[in-house]
Amino acid sequence: MATGVSDATATARAEISRLFRMPEPDVLSGLLKDARLDSGERARVENRALGMLAELRSAQSSGWVNQFLQEYRLNTSEGVALLSLAEAFLRVPDPETADLLIADKLGNADWRAHTGKSHSKLVNSATWGLVIGRALVSDTQQASVLKKLISRAGEPFVRQAVGAAMRMMGEIFVMGRTIEEAIGRMRKPENKGFTASFDMLGEAARTFPDAERYFRAYEDAIHAVGKVPEAGHSISVKLSALHPRYEVAQYDRCVSSLIEQVEALATLAANYGIAFTIDAEETERLEMSLDIIGTVAALPALKGWDGLGMAIQAYGKRARPTIAWADAVGRATGRRIAARLVKGAYWDSEIKRAQEQGLHEYPLFTRKAATDVSYLACAKDMLAAPNIYPAFATHNALTVATILEWAGESRDFEFQRLHGMGEGLYETLVREQGYHTRIYAPVGGHRDLLAYLVRRLLENGANSSFVHQLADEHMTDAEILADPVEKIAAVGGTRHPGIPLPKDLFGPARKNSEGIDLNDKTELARVARQVSFVPSEVEGRSRNRISTSLDTNDESGVAREIVSRALSAYPAWEAAGIDHRAACLDRLADLLEQERDALMRIAVQEAKKTIPDALGEVREAVDFCRYYAQQARDGLQPVELPGPTGERNLLRMEGRGTWVCIAPWNFPLAIFLGQVAAALVTGNTVVAKPAPQTPEIAAYAVGLAHSAGIPEDALILAIGGPEMGAALTADPRIAGVAFTGSTATAKRIARTLLEDEERPIIPLIAETGGINAMIVDSTALPEQVVQDVVTSAFRSAGQRCSALRLLVLQEEIADRTLEMLSGAMDTLIVGDPADPRTDVGPVIDRQAYDRLMTYRETQQGRWIKTIDAPRAGLFVPPTAIRLDAIEDLKREWFGPILHVATWKAGQLEDTIRRINRSGFGLTMGLHSRIARSADDVEQLARVGNLYVNRSMIGAIVGSQPFGGEGLSGTGPKAGGPHYLPRFCAERVTSTDTTSSGGNATLLSLNDVGI
Ligand SMILES: Cc1cc2nc3c(=O)[nH]c(=O)nc-3n(C[C@H](O)[C@H](O)[C@H](O)COP(=O)(O)OP(=O)(O)OC[C@H]3O[C@@H](n4cnc5c(N)ncnc54)[C@H](O)[C@@H]3O)c2cc1C
User: Per mean pLDDT, which range of 18-27, 456-465, 543-552, 679-688 is the poorest?
Assistant: First the structure.
């Protein structure tokens, strides 16, 4: 794609890529030097900043919101209760649920402790409101007296009061419900001298119609602002609002569409002579946004327009070269790029995501002071860059004072602040000293403001934030204005000790599995090439080996022989000891990581996994090996048990003999190796039978296990279908069976194990399927629900045991949620799993395809939504089907088919009981902001894994042990602390230590102190 590339832009882009994965101290060492103030500068900056603190404090003592936020901080449970009430309340349509939400949030907090504490009368009256509100929503006698007092106005009164309070909070941070209202408000005296950049509120678009709606809103805003060009206002644009799939994997379709849309908006803005800035979003989107901005900047039609702007996040390691890039683009395209330097709004979620993805390094700094240092170094660059018009967005007095020091006499830049924040900081600068300050002014209705409101409340409430520190009476001015350069230099630029690298997430005892950054376009392209590769020689060899063992009709003969070999290997393997066996698993984990590309290739080609699923598969297998190695070392050592003096009781956990492990095709590496690793590390030898659909990846894994030091006869691969499974489990010499698959087959195995009267009773660990339901109430955030439903129901083509099969929506929100769900389904791509764009691949085989398609056809009259899928191949179109009642779904449909039913407000318990009655008990989901509802579901749901306010798939080894109950399996949970003991024989030796003469130990006790 042409991006207006010059040598300088190319150099800057290369630097941007390089810094991303650099360790934090290395990035900071360059920044520290440029952010440092000499002693004269520092004294002047501190002096100026002290003056600003005084102005800020006096401005804010008059603002009741600041006082309110000070009283209810996020480190108090009351502050958190108000935050979560604010996040959800305004979107709840039905009074019954709204009351439950209020009771939930007001009911548990100690509002009384806050009465009369604030300097503000308004805050104190609000606190009394909360005290009364709490009393009203509780079940006490006092509540009923109060309710009588307020008579019939009782609960609606509380609801109305809370609603009004939330709307007021919204108004503090939102400039107007419409662009006209917002422009009007900017004319009010309190905004005199300031300009605005209007932002059309709303979260990222989830559907194409949503994105169109946002595009029109931006267009309308440009027209409205364009009509008053003399006011100097501008527009801010979020690219994620303009495309529902603004993702690296969807680069080809989203970037070209976004370029078109930004071009259209930019042209409109240029015609009016107004400016617009592209907001900075999640770090994975940075490079895409640069491609878009670079292309638009190079458009001949926009030549000479200086209004194109972009935000740059100082918390990112790549901030500085991004500024160099903007300057180079400005030079190459003959304009000044309006660069807005921010610190960044997504710090907490970005850190979490890097941990989940197992990345090598964080893309952001991990100390607040490091972000400040970066901000200062970037600011210095911007002031010196000839092709940048600098805009400094901050509410931090020290940051502002430093920039003023460096800017000297220049006025050729502007400050920016958010509406509702930083009042008092800029008034003197604007009205008396002629500096330009712009207010970022969100525009939107109440429903759209919630997510934004929460971000602002978080920003105001976080301990590390300047606005929070300013309001904290315990902090001295010296602490607030401490030099960030000194702070970072003092710790040598090291990472925050409380934020370990993703690989160290599980502590020193166990390394986390390594991820691949699939949001790195170059890396994604490399992986895509790898997984599409024609099978290599090594794989060819494993294929030959498989075919040899398949060339037989004598399954029981082969099974007998394999079991005999495994039995004879058992004594030596058991005797090798825990440490030796655990070390083999650790080596196997390392080998799996070394061979990750090859394994992912087989997972894609043989098991038809998409690229992210194939990566997840390898990572899970690695985690299983390391986790069970650690569990064995820590938990399987002999334990001396307490008892009367004169005897020794020793409990030992030992192998049982030879286990048969039977794995499914849907996790042909992770579940396959998980079972095998657990059986092996506990001292058993293993005959491992993969599913007939996925022998290659199993053979590859077994090959690696042997290379890792596991003897060939301690782990033997048995290829074959049901006959082989039947023959192996029928062998009376085996010591246990670990099985994952259908409930029917699990029952058949259970019967086989009991058939022979002579045979010992042996353990069966079975993990089977489920009719997994997700319950959604009207407090849930629809955008999050829809995203989690799509992920849970359709990712992996619905071929996960944990996948969502039954969505149960509260009636009041069903239509709206289903409309958004249909729109989100329209954005899915069904196709070749090796293609990075693919969301949903084919189902595993023709038999599965025919079964699913036939069922889907019979339900045609009930389709809520289905989408296109390629005709050639085994592609089952993702489909949502309406049910009249929860009970109508009687069995598990193992594919991308989602059933939808509804429930009535007030009937949560009944709904859970009805779901329980299916007899399955694997996973359940709940989306609700009412903590008591989560407690109810936790108590009543008979499932192994409950997921609250998140997707229902992707259990992480050691964090989310996985497995069900009832028709869904026997337990114990894979990847959990109780799994290994089930593979062991527990043996206790009790020795009378006095038998050889008397209790010498007892008699030798000293009488201390006598
Ligand atoms: C006009 C304007 C436009 C904005 N546009 C955007 C935008 O497009 N994209 C965007 O992401 N944000 C945007 N923001 C939000 C902005 O990121 C925050 O308001 C800003 O970070 C607050 O910085 P501060 O200097 O006011 O406060 P400070 O309190 O000095 O800094 C707080 C910031 O430090 C960072 N931080 C906190 N803890 C840590 C830690 N442990 N390690 C590293 N860093 C940490 C966080 O980024 C936090 O926001 C915008 C803000 C303004 C004023």
Answer: 543-552
Instruction: Judge if the beta carbon of residue 315 lies within 6 A of ligand 1.
Output: yes
Report CA(469)–ligand 1 centroid distance (Å): 14
* Residue-level pLDDT at 438: 97
Q: Which atom of ligand 1 is nearest to the CA of 370?
A: 43
Burial 549-570 (b: 16+ CB within 10 A, else e): beeeeebeebbbebbebbbebb
Interval between CA 47 and ligand 1 midpoint (Å): 24
Pocket test of ligand 1: the residue of 200, 341, 343 to mutate, having most ligand atoms within 8 Å of its CB, is 343
Query: Which residue from 155, 160, 163, 164 is spatially nearest to 134, judged by alpha carbons?
Result: 155
* Three-state SS sequence of 400-426: HHHHHHHHCCCCCCEEEEECCCCCCCC
| Closest to 601 measured CA to CA, from 836, 834, 832 | 834
Per-residue confidence (pLDDT) for residue 547, from 0 to 100: 41
Position of tokens 């709303």? Answer: 202
Amino acid residing at 784:
Q
- Ligand 1 in contact with 903 (CB < 6 A)? no
Give the contacts of 497 (CB within 8 A, at least 6 positions apart): none
Q: Is 367 in the pocket of ligand 1 (CB under 6 A)?
A: yes
Separation of alpha carbons 180 and 231, rounded Å: 13
Q: Which of 37, 905, 19, 715 is nearest to 405 (CA)?
A: 37
Q: Whose CA is nearest to atom 38 of ligand 1?
A: 368
* Residue 179 Cβ < 6 Å to ligand 1: no
Q: Express each pLDDT in 442-482 by its tens digit.
A: 998 877 777 777 777 777 777 888 988 887 888 999 999 99
Give the up-direction half-sphere exposure of residue 419: CA atoms within 13 A in the CB hemisphere.
27
CA of 359 to the centre of ligand 1 (A): 23
| Contact call for residues 210 and 245 (beta carbons, < 8 A) | no
Q: Give the Cα separation of 996 and 151 in Å (integer).
A: 85
- Backbone Cα Rg of the chain: 32
In the predicted model, is pLDDT for residue 338 greater than 60?
Answer: yes
866 in contact with ligand 1, CB cutoff 6 A: no
- Grouping H, G, I as helix, E, B as strand and the rest as coil, residue 899 is strand
What are the tokens at 403? 């920039």
- What is the torsion angle, in degrees rounded to the nearest 10, for the CA atoms of residue 238, residue 244, residue 248 and residue 254? -90
Query: Ligand 1: which atom is nearest the Cα of residue 277?
Result: 8
> In angstroms, what CA-CA distances link 677 with 298, 627, 651, 746, 956?
56, 10, 23, 21, 16
Catalytic sites, residue numbers: 767, 801
626 Cα–ligand 1 center, Å: 38
CA-closest residue to ligand 1 atom 31: 465
User: SS3 of 26, please?
Assistant: helix
Distance from the CA of 317 to the center of ligand 1, in angstroms? 14
Give backbone dihedrals phi and psi of 806, rounded to 5 degrees, phi first. Answer: -140, 110
Contact 1001, 993 (CB under 8 A): yes
Residue 380 has phi, psi (to 5 degrees) of -60, -45
Which residues lie across from 316 on neighbouring strands?
A: 364
- For atom 37 of ligand 1, which residue has the closest CA? 368
Kindly give the distance from the C-alpha atom of residue 347 to the centroid of ligand 1, in angstroms, as a whole number: 8
Contact 308, 237 (CB under 8 A): no
Give residue-wise pLDDT tens across range 727-763.
999 999 999 999 999 999 999 999 999 988 889 999 9
Residues 915-969 have pLDDT tens digits of 999 999 999 999 999 999 999 999 999 999 999 999 999 999 999 999 999 999 9
pLDDT of residue 2: 44
Please indicate whether residue 89, judged by its CB atom, sits closer than 6 Å to ligand 1.
Answer: no
The reported pLDDT for the residue numbered 498 is: 96
